[in-house]
Amino acid sequence: MTALIALDPSETEPLYLQIARRLREAAASGTLPAGSRLPSSRNLATQLSVARGTVDAAYALLAGEGAIETRGSAGTIISSQIKVPVTSPGQRSLALREERVEAAPMPFRLGLPALDAFPRKLWSGLAVRAARGIGPEELAYPDPAGFFRLRQAIAAYLGVSRGIVCAPRQVLITGGFQGALSLVRQVLLRAGDTVWVEDPGHHHTRQALEAGGARLVPVRVDREGMRVAAGTVAAPRAKLAVVTPTHQSPLGVALSLPRRLALLAWAAEAGAWVLEDDYDSEYRYTGRPLPALKSLDRGERVLFAGSFSKVLFPGLRLGYLIVPDELAAAFQRASRLLTNGQSLLEQQVVAHFMEQGHFARHLRRMRELYAARRSALAAALTVAFGDRATVELEAGGMHLLLRFPPETADDILARQARAAGLAPTALSSLTMAHGAGSGLLLGFTNIPEAEADMLAGRLRAATSVEAALPA
Question: Taking the model in full, what pTM does it have?
Answer without folding.
Answer: 0.77
